[in-house]
Fold Transmembrane protein.
Amino acid sequence: MEDTAPITTLLYSILALPIAFMILYWTKVRKDRRRNETGEIEYKSLGHALTFFIIEGLALVGSLSILITAVSGIVRYLIYVYA
């Protein structure tokens, strides 16, 4: 197990939450910039679309893993303090 103090784990977890939300917001803004008047997403070429899907996919998977880690750190702190 780790040798860090529980409060340190809690602080890192709380600091990780805004980072995950900023990544999710960045992908939303990036997707909204590609929309046309009818609400469909437009791409210049197939390569551009594939690059967009790879970048957006990696960002979403990364933010999801950060969220899971942060929430588990908070829950671990609550279990340590109240159990």
Q: What stands out?
A: The chain is about 80% helix and 0% strand. Residues 6-82 form one domain.
